[in-house]
Amino acid sequence: MKLYTFWRSIATFRVRMALNLKGINPEVEYVDLLKGHQHGDYKTVNPQKLIPALVLDEGGPPLFQSMAIMEYLEETYPQPPLLPKDGRGRARVRGLSQVVVSDAHPLSVPRIRNYLTQTLKLSHDQMHEWVRHWQVEALQTLETLLSRDKETGRYCHGDAITIADICLVGQAVGSSFFDVGIKPFPTVERIVNTCLENDAIARAHPLKQPGAAAPA
């Protein structure tokens, strides 16, 4: 199994957390998004030129998109489970995850930032303000849902780590790259800090990966 990765990629951070929690140690290949390496040979791996991509041992087309990869891992390596057993619980976990994966994270990725500055000619500060707006909105939504719902426990859903926690940690770390903290969101902060006490999650952190640098 081979994972195409980059230290700053929050989507790949999510997959690293899931792999670590499942006890899977893939071969890794680095694609430097900030240097544009995704536009070279890597586009034959994923024509969308995004990471992560996961190549399976049995061959075939690489898997792509972090949620799809995590669901594959859940179905193929069921222990420890990262989704609840009941249908309603699974839907809640997926819903919380999609607040991050579908709504917030896509608005902060390099191709969007580059479009804002290079095509729409926003200043660097304007671009950062635009990104921060959507990250704060997502964190506020998550805080409301997590503080309101009785299904919230030690983690996003009960007392076991799920894909929702993986996505929440990714959101918190990704937001921090744009100077958005989680202190104003106490339930989010509590769950994120609890998750980061888990070694499998902590060692997947972007700043602990090869080539990591303080985000600009």
What is the string of SSEs from the N terminus onward? EHEEEHHHHHHH
Strand content: 5-15%
Overall number of strands: 4
Largest sheet, spatial ordering of strands: 2-1-3-4
Quickly count the domains: 2
Q: Kindly report the oligomeric state of this protein.
A: single chain
Low-confidence stretches: none
Inertia-based shape: globular
CATH class of the largest domain: Mainly Alpha
Largest sheet: 4 strands, mixed
3D architecture notes:
Strand 1, helix 1 and strand 2 form a beta-alpha-beta unit. The mean pLDDT is 92. The protein folds into two domains: 79 residues, Glutaredoxin, CATH 3.40.30; 116 residues, Glutathione S-transferase Yfyf (Class Pi), Chain A, domain 2 (Up-down Bundle), CATH 1.20.1050.10. It has eight helices and four strands. The chain is globular. Helix 3 packs antiparallel against helix 5. It has a four-stranded mixed β-sheet, with helices on one face. With 216 residues, the protein is of the alpha+beta class.
